[in-house]
Structures are given as C-alpha cells and as structure tokens.
Amino acid sequence: FLSFFLSATHPAMAKTALVILATGAEELETVAVIDVLRRGEVEVTVAGLEGRDPVKCSRGVVLLPDVALQDVATKLFHAVILPGGGGGSKRLRESALVGDILRTHMKEDMLIAAICAATTALKAHQIGQGLQVTSHPSVKQELTDTYKYSDDTRVIKDANIITSRGPGTAIEFGLLILSNLTSGEVRSSVAGPMMLFPGQ
Amino acid sequence: FLSFFLSATHPAMAKTALVILATGAEELETVAVIDVLRRGEVEVTVAGLEGRDPVKCSRGVVLLPDVALQDVATKLFHAVILPGGGGGSKRLRESALVGDILRTHMKEDMLIAAICAATTALKAHQIGQGLQVTSHPSVKQELTDTYKYSDDTRVIKDANIITSRGPGTAIEFGLLILSNLTSGEVRSSVAGPMMLFPGQ
Ligand SMILES: [Cu+]
C-alpha cells in the first residue's frame, strides 16, 4: 500500500515538456503555460534559445531559463512548446536548432504547441502543413497559404499540433496541452483553483 | 504640433506602479499584471522584497526584479500591487517594510491592489478594514471578519483598494488597475489584442 501511495504521488513516468524561451517572448504566454503544466505535475524544462543567461521578454519581464537549449537539444520531450511575442517568434523562426528539434519531435509523434505569433515558426520550419491551426490575428495572413486557418477557436488541436491565439488564451492553451499529456481529470483539478472565466 | 505629438506619445506624467515580488509569488499573477500595465504605458517597477537577486516563484519560474524593494521604499507610486501565491503572500504579511509602504500609499490616497492570497497581506497590515474585497476562495475565512467579502466578483474596487481572485482573473485585475490609472480607452486598446474570453 505504501509503495502504491508513493508511486501515485510521484509517478515514475512523469510527462515532460520543453518550453523554448527566446529574447522577446511574450512573458504572459510563456509563464501561463509553464504554470499550468507544473500545476499538473508535468516536468517542464524552460530552455533559453540563446543560452542560460536571463531572457528579456517582450514587456521587459526578465526570466531565468532552467537550461540552455543547446544542452537539451538531443533529448526527447512529450511536448515542445513555443511561446509567442513578435521578437521571440522571429528568433524561433530563424533558429536552425529549433527546426531540428521540431522535426525530431514530429517524427516521434510528440506534441508540438505554438501560441500567438509563434505559429509562424511552425510554418518557417515546415511543421504540420495542411493542418488546422490558429494564431494571433495579426499574423493570420502569413499562415492561410500553408494551413487550414481557424478564426473561431481559442485553442485547437489537429493531429499532434496545438495552436492558440494570445495572452488571453494562454491558460486554455496550457490546459489543452495538459489534458493531452495527462487526462481530463487532471485538467479539471488544475483548472478549478485557477479561477477561470465561466465557460473558459 | 510636434511638441503635442511628442507629449502624447511620451507623456510627461506617466503613471507609475510598484509590484512587490517575494519568493513564492504566483508567477502568472505577477507577470499578467506587469504585462497589462506596461502595454498601457504605465511605468512598472518590479521590486524584490528580499533584494535584487532572482526570485523563485510558486511554480519554479525564476524572475529577475528590476530593483530591491529597499531601494525604492521612500518613493511614491500611483499604485502598489501585491501578487498572490501562498509563500509570497506569507512573506508580504510578515514584512514590516511592506506595511510601511502600504500605509504611506494609503495616506496619499494611491491605489493599492492585491490578488489571490495577497488580500491577507492587506489585513495583516491593517489596510482598508471594512471595505469590500475579494480573494482566492481558499483564504476567504481569514478575511470575512475584517472586510465585506465579495464571492461573486472577479475583481473589485472599493475606495482605493482593488482586489481579485487568482491566476484566471489576473488579466482582468491588471485591466482594472490600468483603467483606474489611465482611462477606459486605454484599457480597451490594451485588452483588444490580448484575445480575452468574450465577456472578460
Ligand atoms: Cu503574443
């Protein structure tokens, strides 16, 4: 009984997620998804695209990454997550290492998730062409030639790709990633105490 | 005309806000309010209660404060903001310096705002007794003897005190602070691109 109890509270096979943090990332989108996943006991690694140094986000919040992306580039995670923000998304688009990581995780059928302007980084690295996606409306025009674009969903999953729209949808984005990595029950237990808007 | 244009884009009298960041603060609540206010051109100072070192938040996100609280303790801000989180709120309750800052700002009739468990720090420092407040439901019992407690509002302002409930209400909390510091038009211009839930 004791060992069952321990394994239930410390699951041996915890799910893992990689959040790729670039200078200019939208800080609220970044932190919301980390927070939601960690509340659901997902092991989240926050990896600095440019190394281990503090990362200045789009509205000046400074986040310390857990590791340099380079140092976890050969690891496989259950989910790879790209926060939005104009400057951050540009760096995600331009990084060959991000492309390599996304393609490896596609091949292994892991979850790939992008929010806001970061959906453009999926396109830049030729991930999931033809699937249903959404994004911040300001970058819609760049995506409609490559994807089935959805305007009327706040977060959407097609195959192994999850996309969402902006800071106001970031908790829902985190929760959909969480329910896919764990279960609807875990999602509910995390969402409850967070005081979401009714219907969210 | 030019000088009007410049003063409109760089207002000489920018509003200022102090966010007091303690170890164990809820990172999503902290970052949401900073993000919203900076989108609205409020000058936000993120001050580390324990100094200038990186601050580990409740779900392991590490934030770098802009300054040590000690170094801005004699400054007056248009708003003083207390993020929630169990560990962070406890430190806010126990800090005599936080009490001094809150009382000074009360005396000068500045805005004082607390979210989630941080409403308990208002009580600990004897701020706004008898006013309508809300908080995370988990600390309601500690507050009903001192305040008119509101269960059915996500964010509430009474006199110069604004309080709110949790991570899911943090953007609305930031927006109500913003509209009080600036205007309803600024609030709308900030809220629009954030992709809030309809009705939020
Ligand atoms: Cu964004």
Structure description:
The structure is a homodimer of 200-residue chains. Chain A has 200 residues and is of the alpha/beta class. Chain A is built from seven helices and eleven strands. Chain A has helices at residues 2-9, 27-39, 86-94, 96-107, 119-124, 170-181, 184-191, and strands at 16-21, 43-48, 55-56, 62-64, 67-68, 79-82, 111-115, 132-133, 148-149, 155-158, 161-164. In chain A, helix 2 packs parallel to helix 6 and helix 6 runs antiparallel to helix 7. Chain A is globular, with a radius of gyration of 16 Å. At the A-B interface, helix 2 and strand 4 of A face helix 2 and strand 4 of B. Bound molecules: copper (I) ion (CU1). Residues 26, 29, 84-85, 116-117, 136, 166 of chain A line the site of copper (I) ion.
Summarize this structure as a short list of keywords or feature phrases:
homodimer; 200 residues; alpha/beta; seven-stranded mixed β-sheet; two-stranded antiparallel sheet; 7 helices; 11 strands; 20% strand; globular; disordered N terminus; binds copper (I) ion
